[in-house]
Structures are given as structure tokens and as C-alpha cells.
Amino acid sequence: MEKSRAFLLLLLIGVILIVVAAPLLQHGSSAIHDEASSREVLVINLTGSIDPGTYSMIKSDLHGVSSSSVRAVIININAGSGMLKSALDMDKCINSTENSGIKVYAYIGPGASAVNAGSYVAMDADGIYMAPGSSIGRAKPYIIAGSQEEENADALNMGNIMSALASSHGRNGTYAMEMVTGDTVYDSSVAISDNVANGRSPSLGGFIAEMNLSSYGIHYSEENLYENFIGFLGSPFTAGLLILTGIIAVFFDLYHGTIVLSVLGVALIVLGIIGAALIDASVIGLLLLLLAGILIFIEFETNHGVALLLGLISGIAGVYFLGSSYGTNSPGYSPDPYGEGFYLTSIAIILLGMLMVVYISRILKSQIREHYTGIESLIGHSAEVKTAMGTNGRGFVAIEGVQWRALNIGVPVNRNDRVIIIERRGLTLIVKKI
């Protein structure tokens, strides 16, 4: 029974991995443009934060485009905070498109902005055009748990990158660098006068007309469901919480003898690991989450409370350090991502801990039956065997219809045999055949 359960669990894990990994392998494998069709203008709506989801969109949209099918690419941008690694990865896709002879423009519409991580994407375009009321800049990087010296060094490095992006496209590298090192933000008038942007246009339609692109077909693109899901996974909050929740679900299932929570737990852990890989998660954060899992397991075995408290602290710290640049190639975030989202994640982890307390308490209460003498103990009572166990084998027994984990120290027992409980070690019952 235990072998078949383990085999089924491994099989389901494999299915989960295939289902989740298939889109990652296939999504960007084919171009959305038919080279035999008439030329068009590709308008990519880039909104919200810069994350693995937006990178996946840009990569998919620009993959395989050629000057014979696409006349120009316009990134209609209204993007703010996010990951600098994702922004720089997007820049590589933009550079590849420009090198193929296709003009790439960034348009920042009325009231929109290309700030923080989004400003790096805009600055890599051949031309930046801004509507009245729009802004660009405020691109200083933030290193999670980094010292002031590390942040200054990273700001200088990213400032040089921003300056190089501007200079390579004929814009003012000095003022562009100030967006990073000085965290400066420019409105449309200042950006154009300081040659950080190329020109002004009141609307996207007007800009298309000004660039003499109105005669071409317009193809609009924005994040689809898959890319939104990748963006959701590619967050340290999501990845860390999924991993911790999955670990707790698997441990819950150890005391129920089912497979449902195990499958769910493994699925959550796999999704969390994929999310961690998407953000190039820090090994420090992953180790702290692993430590949290170990401490939670100890709590299930001991029920002392101390291990649970330390596990929750380690889990919260793991989520915090998951997005750190330590041990990764990530240049950090712009700006600091750890605000409301981190607090909500911490509260969710604490609630998981409270759920564990309630769950373990119920297990103990169900394992302890009150005698007339007032002494609470299971020792000496019988139970029904639910899974066959050899000598020193592990399995499950039922007490009043509820299954619990057991260790058989007597002769081998079969399903439906009766055993006597001779000891309780944490939440495991030590039994032998009657």
C-alpha cells in the first residue's frame, strides 16, 4: 500500500511538472507574425509592473519578427515598479528587434509614466515620445537587505547602463543617468528639452500619424492569461508563500493517510520553485524556507510550540530574502518592493501557523481519551490496522474512525488486525499486535 501510494504520488508530481513546464517551453517557440502577410505596426501595451510575465510577453511578441512583416514596433508604456533583471531581459529582445532593421518606439501617453524599472525599457527604444502630463525616470535600484555602500555601487552600475542606453540612441546620457543615481523624474516638457525624450505627441493615434504609419495595419498586443500567471508566480511573496503552504499541506497529510493533501502540497511547492526560478531567487531565501520546513516538521513531532515559532520566523525571513540579490545575478528592484505586499504575506504565514496550532490540538485531543480516573492516555487501548505493517514498519491505524500514523514494533500485521497502543511519541503511535 505504501509503495503504491508513493508511486501514485511520484506519477502525479510528474504530471504536474509536465503541465506547468509545457507552456514555458512552447509559448515563445513560434512567431505570431506571418512573413507572407502585409506589413503591420505592432503596438505592445506595457502596463503595470515589470516582471517575468511582461518579459514573457515582450519575448513572445518580438520573437521572429522581420522587417518584411513588421514596419515598426510601438511600446505603449505605462509601467512602474518591478524587477530590473526583467527590464534588462526585455531590453535584449528590443535590441535584437532593432538590429533586424525594425524601428522600436516607446510612447508614454497622457497621464502615463515610464518610471522605476519601466524607464529602462523606454530608454532602449529608438525614439521616446511623450504626451502632456506624462513622466519618465525615478529609476534608482534597491537591493533587499543591502548596505548603503552596496546600493550606491549598484546605482552607479545601473546609472551607467541607463546612460549607455540613452547615448546609443542619440539621447542625453548624463541626464538619463541622473534618473538612476539621483532618482530624478522628468515630466514631458523637461524630458524633451533635456533630450531625454525625442518628442511630444498628444495621443497614440496622433503619434502613429506623425510617424507616417497610419497606412499600415495595426496589431495590438497585451499580456494574456499565461503571461499574467507567470507574472503572479514571479513574485517573492507568491513563491515563498506557495512553498511554505505546500510544505504544511504535505505534513498535514502524514497524519491522515490520504494522498489529496500530499498532491496539493507538492503542486504548490513545484509552483513556488518555478516562481523562485523565474526571479533568480537568492539561495539565502531558499535555505531559510527549507529551514522553516524542517522546523515545522519538528513541531509536528514534538508539539512544543518553540519549533513552530522559529519556523514562522524563518519562513517570513525566507520570503524577505527570496528577492535579494545575494548569490544571484539580479541587479535588484526599482523601487523597494517590500511594502504592503510583504506585510500581507507575513500575516498569511502567521495565519498558517495558527491553523497548525488548531490542527495539532485537534489531533492530540482525538488521540487522548479521558478515563474515569482523570488520567489522559491512549496507552493500553486498541486500534484497527488500516495499512499492513512489517516489524518496525510504519503505516496507519484507526481510532474511533480517525486514521493516525503508527509504528509497529511487534510481529507483522495485516489490514483489519487489532493492535494495542503501548506508547505515543509526539503524534506517532507505537503499536504491536494483540
Give the SSE map.
Blueprint: H1 2-26, E1 40-50, H2 52-62, E2 70-83, H3 84-99, E3 103-108, E4 113-115, H4 117-123, E5 127-130, E6 135-137, H5 148-168, H6 173-181, E7 185-187, H7 188-193, E8 199-200, H8 204-210, E9 217-221, H9 225-233, H10 236-253, H11 260-278, H12 283-302, H13 306-322, E10 333-334, H14 340-367, E11 382-385, E12 393-399, E13 402-408, E14 418-425, E15 428-433
Parallel strand pairs: 1-2, 1-9, 2-3, 3-5, 4-6, 5-8, 13-15
Antiparallel strand pairs: 2-10, 6-7, 11-12, 11-14, 12-13, 14-15
Helix pairs in contact: 1-11, 2-3, 2-9, 3-4, 5-6, 10-11, 10-12, 10-13, 10-14, 12-13, 13-14
Short description:
This protein is α/β, with parallel strands linked by helices and 434 residues long. Helix content is 49%, strand content 20%.
Total of helices = 14
Query: Which regions contain 5 or more consecutive residues with pLDDT less than 50?
Result: 22-37, 369-376
Average of the residue pLDDT scores: 86
Q: Return the string of H and E elements.
A: HEHEHEEHEEHHEHEHEHHHHHEHEEEEE
Structural class of the secondary elements?
alpha/beta
Distance between the termini: 22 Å
Radius of gyration of CA atoms, rounded to a whole number: 29 Å
Instruction: Note the overall shape.
Output: elongated
Strand content: 15-25%
Question: Percent range for helical residues?
Answer: 40-55%
Explained architecture:
By secondary structure, the protein is an alpha/beta fold. The chain is built from 14 helices and 15 strands. It has helices at 2-26, 52-62, 84-99, 117-123, 148-168, 173-181, 188-193, 204-210, 225-233, 236-253, 260-278, 283-302, 306-322, 340-367; strands at 40-50, 70-83, 103-108, 113-115, 127-130, 135-137, 185-187, 199-200, 217-221, 333-334, 382-385, 393-399, 402-408, 418-425, 428-433. The strands form three sheets. Strands 1, 2, 3, 5, 8, 9 and 10 form a seven-stranded mixed beta sheet that branches. Strand 11 (382-385) and strand 12 form a beta hairpin. Helix 2 runs antiparallel to helix 9, helix 5 (148-168) packs antiparallel against helix 6 and helix 10 (236-253) packs antiparallel against helix 13.
